[in-house]
Design goal:
Oligomer: heterotetramer
Low-confidence stretches of chain D: 1-17
CATH superfamily of chain D: Cytochrome c oxidase-like, subunit I domain
Strand order of the largest sheet of chain B: 3-2-1-5-8
Shape of chain B: elongated
Largest sheet of chain B: 5 strands, mixed
Low-confidence stretches of chain B: none
Helix content of chain B: 25-40%
Distance between the termini of chain D: 26 Å
Distance between the termini of chain B: 37 Å
CATH superfamily of the largest domain in chain B: Cupredoxins -  blue copper proteins
Number of domains of chain B: 3
Number of strands of chain B: 12
CATH topology of the largest domain in chain B: Immunoglobulin-like
Number of strands of chain D: 1
Number of helices of chain D: 15
Mean pLDDT of chain B: 91
Radius of gyration of chain D: 23 Å
Number of helices of chain B: 7
Structural class of chain B: alpha+beta
Structural class of chain D: mainly alpha
CATH architecture of the largest domain in chain B: Sandwich
Largest sheet of chain D: none
Order of helices and strands of chain B: HHEEEEEEEEEEHHEEHHH
CATH topology of chain D: Cytochrome C Oxidase, Chain A
CATH architecture of chain D: Up-down Bundle
CATH class of chain D: Mainly Alpha
Shape of chain D: globular
């Protein structure tokens, strides 16, 4: 395995511990809330669920991007990267709406333990998505500028490992916050 | 020749058990240490390079049997130690069942509030307990984490806000035992001291009766003026004196204050002079103490002292 | 009623369990053309342990009274017995077996590290999801499937590390990662159970006292529901992880026993000459 | 796994040591040797500061009811002393030495990611500077103890900005440590020279590898906790504030979930140093290489599951306490195996007592004491007396000073010639050694007793109880002796840098690859790497007739 990919793999291993701690904090306080906002009474699973699908889809598109660089298909690489960015951006937009609606209802990080853990967990995930989007945009820019002729590119592969990880984290986070509350 | 305190002066059955285990462990440790130190010393002397001898020694790379031996032996020692640990642990700290606490110990920055739920006595910093009786204590904190530690009598236990703890209090022989807060709790952590006064049942009952009766508020002389001042000069906003309007529990309860031995959680002897100095400027004796300097005049201080000394 | 009496009584040897075990042992003997080899002894210890653990009071206690007991049983079934069985199976057996059981090939796919890890750890998690666990307790007929499933999954989980086929094993460092990551997930589950409020598993809160030992457990042994749940969680956590730890120690030990391959160097000359130094 | 010892990254020439390009050649450097040296210098400075803080505290505690230092200052001093020594001295020093030596020991040109390497260093340095900047703010330095228990470290109880500086400073350096952990792992796994298989790694490299894994797996835990603490302090979040539904105990779980593995992060590379020094000066290979290496892995894995033994007094219940007590005691076994292996290595050797060896042997003795008291406090009822008392202070200093720091001194005396090309003065070294041993034991041995007779830690003053004054005075005298010994050490370094004897490539006649190149090594470390056919390549070269591996 190339150094770069090895580095990224160990890095996300380290990252997953970080998210594990945030999730444990959420779980620890789950059910402690007597009054005030909880997942049940203040979140919108359907809306967020739909937006999550976009994020999951983006994992698929970046996989296709990887395929096309192996096939040295420069045009499709651009297309799939762009698609990934758009899908990710839509997800972030969805998160933004969720946050906005909560804050609109005076549910802020200082409201109670649910709000605290919820905003922290989704906030850090959102931050990771944004970082991913920035890296993807850089990749897209370079691609348009004519880089990444393939058939291999550590840059693309590393970013897609990271992107899959961000996706995977959301699977867990979504199930812990939303599915747990509404199923 | 004074005696050493702590585990060397175990004064309760629980503490005797813990001290026993501690000394036993120290004994094992010393033996192991001596064995290793001795062998190292022997090796240093026996195998140091002789001058002139530049040859390399025999190169040996290890031996599995030896490794196994010195893996198994420590394992056995650990097993024994673990058995003793669990045994002692349950002896010192058996489950409390559904028993109600005999005393509630509440940690404040930087003093101890003591409440006897059965008799409703409320006092501070001096824990009276009948010798030989097995009491259940409930420990709480109103601010940060404190730790209740009376080295000669009881195990350490944290006072965690939002997480009440329970321990058993048993005392072996009458006497006054000094303890302190053991978990760093802020500026005056060092001066958050407690004294346990273990006395016979009769003495304890007498003390408890004394605490229960409502002190008579003096009606004339300095003391009376002091009583008024106590109401006017915001003392009552923090302190509790039964039978008066002063009902706050932010500072220590002052009912029967004159029966206490110390001021400011063990900083000063409880004498009129000290009390006056304390009233005039608490921070001189306990820097950062949450009791503000009330800017009392000399006379006012005297009067309040008179009042507090009258609270028998 | 004493602890000893408790452990002495309530053994129940299910006929079908005895049947399976005998079949296993005899089958092994036949395949190994009736040789009593060291491997066979190890294998039969595993089988015996299987019989004993499933017939012991652990089983009854676990199904009716104590979460901790069922947890101990699960650890034995999922981690200990499969490991012993696997070590006891020699490559020869596998070859013979796969001749007239080609379907065994499926294990080659299931034995892939990722699959095996997900299966093994997944079972651990899903099985202790409170609702499912409570459901299983209420349905005795699932007991047999549960035991069978645990053993199979356990075997699959250990395959990447202890497969009888050397070629199919992970190299030691990856297998240490494989095991320690499994240990981590075990730890997390253990933490969740240990520090959760009592009554995660409703069935154990106030069980139907069919054997009349509840009073003894609760008051003499002081195993209250919360204590019970803590013991359960910590059992999965500490001893569970110790098993993984020991396993990875074994792999490392095996690794050191292998001779060192000398990457392309001519062994005979130890001289420091231009031609066999790699100039950078 | 590619075995080609080439670093594709540095196509441009790296600035090298001694090239007179001035400061820029250091600030801009991505050469692992220069970065390693910068780590070492920075930690030395932090070490002097932390030591000064300790001495001030000891002077205050020299006699009962003393008023040499105000409580505010005292609380800041012990907070900063602990934080500095752990996060800005021992840990970065060991990382720094690793950064310097790992590529040399595995026959590589540089770390796998030289720029990342530089990033780690600068994050560490500025994290520390940020922390120390808090001294100059009007609110003063953090004063909540080095583990900053919530809710004391929360807004209502610490209105000053100290804890905020503390959290941010440690966040920065923590991320730096993760980066260097990643860097070390990739370097060790991919850049080994042909023949340097995993089973032939020098034990120091083995320990660095395990440590690096610990780094990347446990620092995220505390990073998360720091973020939560900061959110609590800056945005009124409710993680750790019981008043608003938070949990004070959760913080302790997070902190010690990191904090205990941290102890092994601090001590495993030290074990590595000892495992290099003792064989060389006994002229024998390490006894039971396999067991030393494997026990390291065991310690690494075990250390992840024992944190709650720091919380026996919190009231987690006897069941939990019992399990954690067991797990903690188990760690003693692999650790004991290591110690015995070192002793066995010396057995039948021809011991040469140069300063590295002196410190290594002292390490064994002192560390055994620290280890045994460690087993003691792993036993719950003993811990109910010992925890948060001076007994624990003594224990942790025997582990981290008698353990890590003695090993670090051994390492300094051992590798200084390689790093600078000059020998440290043996004579001054002796003075340093004996004063350190005497001072150290004077300071801390008595503190075991102090703890057992009931003196709590972190008190700025104490009542005049029987013998307390005497024992504290002895401890203080010891601390002053230690101070002097450190000054001698610094003097030794300065003098030897100027006019120490030239070292030559391999002054100790050692066996690992770093001694095969010049001292100090050239920019690209080796112009040629000797063939590696065993664990001691230079031994095989010197004794072709009896190589380690037939």
């Amino acid at each position: 395995m190339a150094n770069n990919k090895m580095l990224v793999s160990f890095f996300i291993a380290s990252e997953s511990i970080f998210f594990l701690m945030l999730i444990l904090a959420y779980v620890n306080f789950h059910g402690d809330v007597i009054d005030g906002p909880t997942a049940e009474n203040s979140l919108n699973p359907v809306k967020t669920g739909i937006f999550s699908i976009f994020l999951f889809a983006s994992s698929f598109t970046i996989w296709l991007a990887g395929k096309s660089i192996k096939k040295k298909d420069h045009a499709m690489l651009c297309v799939w990267l762009l698609a990934t960015i758009i899908l990710g951006a839509i997800f972030i937009f969805g998160q933004g709406m969720e946050w906005a609606s909560l804050i609109g209802r005076e549910i802020t990080i200082s409201r109670n333990v649910f709000a605290t853990t919820f905003f922290t967990l989704t906030g850090f995930h959102g931050f990771h998505v944004c970082v991913g989007l920035i890296m993807l945009s850089i990749l897209l820019g370079l691609t348009i500028a004519g880089d990444f002729k393939g058939p291999r590119s550590d840059g693309i592969e590393c970013v897609s490992i990271y992107w899959h990880f961000v996706d995977g984290v959301w699977v867990v986070v979504f199930s812990v916050i939303y599915l747990w509350a509404f199923l | 020749m004074e005696k050493l305190g702590g585990v060397f002066n175990a004064s309760s059955p629980e503490m005797t058990a813990m001290a026993g285990l501690t000394l036993y462990m120290i004994a094992i440790a010393v033996v192991i240490f001596v064995i290793i130190a001795a062998s190292v010393t022997y090796i240093i002397i026996r195998y140091r390079k002789r001058s002139g001898d530049e040859s390399e020694p025999y190169q040996d790379f290890g031996s599995t049997t030896v490794e196994i031996i010195w893996t198994v032996i420590p394992t056995i020692i650990v097993a024994i130690l673990f058995f003793l640990t669990v045994k002692t642990m349950y002896a010192v700290d058996p489950p409390k069942g559904d028993r109600e606490p005999d005393i509630v110990i509440i940690g404040h920055q930087w003093w101890w509030e003591l409440y006897y739920p059965k008799s409703r006595v409320l006092t501070a910093n001096e824990l009276h307990i009948p010798v030989g009786e097995k009491w259940l204590a409930r420990l709480e904190s109103v601010d940060v984490i404190h730790d209740f530690w009376v080295p000669e009598l009881f195990r350490k236990i944290d006072l965690v806000p939002g997480h009440p703890n329970y321990i058993w209090l048993v005392t072996g022989k009458p006497g006054i035992y000094l303890g302190a807060c053991a978990e760093f709790c802020g500026l005056q952590h060092a001066n958050m001291r407690i004294r346990v006064i273990a006395e016979t049942r009769d003495e304890f009952d007498a003390w408890q009766l004394g605490q229960l009766k409502i002190p008579t508020t003096p009606t004339d002389g300095e003391a009376a003026k002091g009583a008024e001042l106590f109401q006017d000069r915001a003392c009552m906003n923090c302190h509790y004196i039964s039978g008066t309007a002063a009902a706050a529990r932010i500072g220590p309860s002052l009912t029967h204050f004159s029966t206490r031995q110390t001021i400011g959680a063990g900083v000063l002897e409880n004498t009129p002079e000290n009390l006056k100095g304390w009233l005039l400027n608490p921070n001189a004796y306990k820097p950062g103490s949450l009791m503000p300097n009330m800017k009392l005049s000399d006379l006012e201080a005297d009067q309040i002292v008179a009042y507090l000394e009258a609270l028998k | 009623m004493t602890t000893w009496k408790l452990l002495a009584s309530y053994w129940s040897f299910e006929p079908w369990m005895i049947l399976i075990c005998t079949v296993l042992i005899l089958g092994y003997l036949v395949l190994d053309n009736l040789r009593i080899s060291r491997a066979f002894l190890i294998f039969s210890t595993g089988v015996l342990l299987l019989l004993l653990s499933t017939s012991s009071p652990l089983n009854i206690l676990g199904r009716n009274y104590l979460f901790s007991a069922s947890m101990i049983l699960h650890i034995i079934l999922l981690l200990v017995i499969p490991l012993i069985l696997l070590i006891g199976i020699s490559p020869g057996i596998i070859n013979k077996l796969s001749n007239f059981l080609p379907s065994l090939k499926v294990f080659n796919i299931l034995g892939k590290p990722v699959v095996a890890w997900i299966l093994g750890v997944g079972t651990m998690w899903i099985w202790h999801a409170p609702n499912l666990h409570n459901y299983l307790l209420r349905n005795d007929y699932l007991q047999f499937t549960q035991i069978l499933l645990f053993i199979t999954v356990g075997l699959i989980f250990w395959l990447p590390v202890f497969s009888p086929m050397e070629s199919r094993r992970l190299s030691p460092l990856p297998s240490t990662l494989y095991l320690s990551s499994a240990c981590l997930s075990c730890t997390v589950l253990g933490i969740l159970i240990t520090f959760a409020n009592a009554g995660l598993y409703r069935e154990y809160l106030n069980p139907v006292d069919t054997l009349g030992i509840l009073n003894f457990l609760r008051n003499d042994l002081c195993i209250t529901p919360s204590v019970d749940q803590q013991i359960g969680g910590l059992t999965m956590w500490v001893p569970g992880c110790l098993i993984y730890l020991v396993a990875s120690m074994i792999t490392i030990a095996r690794w050191y026993r292998e001779p060192e391959e000398n990457s392309g160097y001519r062994l005979h000359d130890a001289g420091y000459r231009m031609n066999d130094t790699n100039t950078i | 796994m590619s075995r080609i010892p080439l670093v594709p990254e540095n196509v441009e020439p790296l600035p090298s040591i001694g090239e007179s390009e001035g400061l820029l050649s250091w600030v801009g450097s991505i050469d692992h040797k220069q970065i390693g040296i910068m780590y070492i210098i920075a930690t030395l400075v932090y070490f002097l500061i932390g030591g000064l803080e300790a001495i001030l505290m000891r002077i205050q505690l020299a006699h009962p009811n003393s008023s040499f230092i105000s409580p505010e200052i005292f609380n800041q001093l012990f907070t900063m002393h602990g934080t500095t020594m752990i996060f800005f001295v021992v840990m970065p020093f060991l990382i720094g030495v690793g950064v310097y030596l790992v590529p040399l020991m595995i026959g590589a040109r540089d770390m796998a990611f030289p720029r990342l390497n530089a990033l780690s260093f600068w994050l560490f340095l500025f994290g520390g500077l940020l922390l120390y900047y808090s001294f100059f703010t009007q609110s003063g330095a953090p004063d909540v103890g080095w583990f900053a228990y919530a809710p004391l470290s929360e807004k209502p109880f610490s209105l000053n900005n100290g804890p905020t500086y503390w959290a941010i400073g440690l966040l920065a350096s923590g991320i730096g440590s993760i980066a260097s952990g990643l860097n070390n792992i990739v370097t060790i796994l991919t850049l080994r020279t042909p023949g340097m298989t995993m089973r032939r790694l020098p034990l120091f490299v083995w320990m660095i590898l395990v440590t690096s894994f610990l780094l990347i797996f446990v620092i995220p835990i505390i990073t998360a906790a720091f973020f939560m603490l900061l959110l609590d302090r800056l945005f009124e979040a409710n993680f750790f504030n019981p008043a608003s539904g938070g949990s004070a105990i959760l913080y302790q779980h997070f902190f010690w979930g990191f904090g205990h593995p941290e102890v092994y992060i601090l001590v495993l590379p030290a074990f590595g140093i000892i495992s290099e020094v003792i064989p060389v000066f006994s002229r024998k290979p390490i006894f039971g290489y396999e067991f030393v290496a494997a026990s390291t892995v065991a310690i690494g894995l075990l250390s992840l599951g024992v944190w709650a033994h720091h919380m026996f007094a919190v009231g987690l219940g006897n069941v939990t306490n019992a399990y954690f007590s067991l797990a903690s005691m188990l760690i003693a076994i692999p650790t004991g195996v290591k110690v015995l292996n070192w002793v066995a290595t010396m057995w039948n050797g021809k011991l040469r007592f140069y300063n590295p060896m002196l410190f290594a042997v002292a390490f064994i003795i002192e560390f055994v004491i620290g280890g045994l008291t460690g087993v003691a406090v792993a036993s719950v009822p003993i811990d109910w007396q010992a925890t948060d008392s001076y007994f624990v202070v003594a224990h942790l200093h025997y582990a981290l000073f008698g353990g890590s720091l003695f090993a670090i001194f051994a390492g300094v005396y051992y590798w200084f010639p390689k790093i600078t090309g000059r020998m440290l003065s043996e004579c001054l070294g002796r003075w340093h050694f004996w004063l350190t041993v005497i001072g150290f034991n004077f300071t801390f041995l008595i503190q075991h007793i102090l703890g057992l007779v009931g003196m709590p830690r972190r008190v700025y003053t104490y009542p005049d109880m029987p013998y307390w004054g005497t024992m504290n005075l002895i401890s203080t005298i010891g601390a002053l002796i230690l101070g002097i010994s450190v000054l001698i050490f610094v003097w030794n370094v300065i003098v030897s840098l100027r006019n120490g004897d030239p070292a030559g490539d391999n002054p100790w006649n050692a066996w690992t690859l770093e001694w095969a190149t010049t001292s100090p090594p050239p920019v690209f470390n080796f112009d040629r790497v000797p063939p590696v056919r065993g664990r001691r390549p230079l031994w095989d070269l010197a004794h072709p007739d009896m190589p380690d591996e037939k």
